[in-house]
Amino acid sequence: MSSSIDLKSKFLKVYDTLKQELINDPAFEFDDDSRQWIQKMLDYNVPGGKLNRGLSVVDSYQLLKGGELSDDEFFLSSALGWCIEWLQAYFLVLDDIMDESHTRRGQPCWFRLPKVGIIAANDGILLRNHVPRILKKHFRGKPYYVDLVDLFNEVEFQTASGQMIDLITTLVGEKDLSKYSLSIHRRIVQYKTAYYSFYLPVACALLMFGEDLDNHVEVKNVLVEMGTYFQVQDDYLDCFGAPEVIGKIGTDIEDFKCSWLVVKALELANEEQKKVLHENYGKKDPAAVAKVKEVYHTLNLQAVFEDYEATSYKKLITSIENHPSKAVQAVLKSFLGKIYKRQK
């Protein structure tokens, strides 16, 4: 699709503009070294992903408007999209330090670069501070400015709180599988992923379109459900996806992740199988991982997932079709279409 490649390159041009503005921000006297550092840090961490979150602000706004966007509308919706990508970069830079990760998007984590190290912690803080700088420069005069700032603050708080539940559930004390349940999985996913990845892009588009978010609680609920479904797919693909397709080798079992698969397995397992899971989950040893996967296969989790996928999809479609606005339905269906039965 040449149109989507075209859209992406136009979107990336907006990134260049925002980057230039940030390295020339009048609130700070930059010298060549600091300018170069920021430039390198941004290029390494912000535009490298799939850009789904950012692009979906533009998509969603276009669907709400129901026509071509003016240059100004394209720029502003893209700027909001980039604010989400900046927020994501800030989370990932700090997450990678906390998780002691090695690679991210096929390259070493930022803090793993010899010249960077723990300076990455401050870079994360800078990335987070770039968001209100961008919002101030481009949206200060808009009637929805306060709502935008409020939205970003609230979603950031929800995401950081989700990360906290994830960290304390996964890391505190001994590895205790009995702490894992569907309800804790759901809470982690909802706060850590669904709000910023699914609700935030649509909420940005709605605010730009002049809508009051208080009138769209149902939209938020559908998007959070979609985010949950997306994460369950992610958990599934981590174990059953083809590494050459998903672009990474799954390590949820080794990392003792609160994955939907292990939660489901614990729910369906007999005592013998539970014992195998308790003894082998969270171990780096390939033989232990193989034993966990064997339990997954025996319990036929692939079929359980396919069943979950079909049920979720039906529920989501029903919720979406209950929405009074056809434009909002189009936005939600476009989101669902992107993720339904994805392979990566």
From TrEMBL:
Lipid biosynthesis keyword on record: no
Gene3D superfamilies per UniProt: Farnesyl Diphosphate Synthase
GO cellular component terms, A-Z: cytoplasm
Pfam family, one: polyprenyl_synt
Signal sequence bounds: none
Needed co-factor(s): Mg(2+)
InterPro entries referenced in this protein's UniProt entry, alphabetically: FPS1-like (IPR039702), Isoprenoid_synthase_dom_sf (IPR008949), Polyprenyl_synt (IPR000092), Polyprenyl_synt_CS (IPR033749)
GO molecular function annotation: (2E,6E)-farnesyl diphosphate synthase activity; dimethylallyltranstransferase activity; metal ion binding
Keyword tags: Isoprene biosynthesis, Magnesium, Metal-binding, Transferase
SUPFAM superfamilies xrefs: Terpenoid synthases
One GO term (biological process): farnesyl diphosphate biosynthetic process
Similarity-based family: Belongs to the FPP/GGPP synthase family.
Protein name stated in the entry: Farnesyl pyrophosphate synthase 1
Organism taxonomic ancestry: Eukaryota, Viridiplantae, Streptophyta, Embryophyta, Tracheophyta
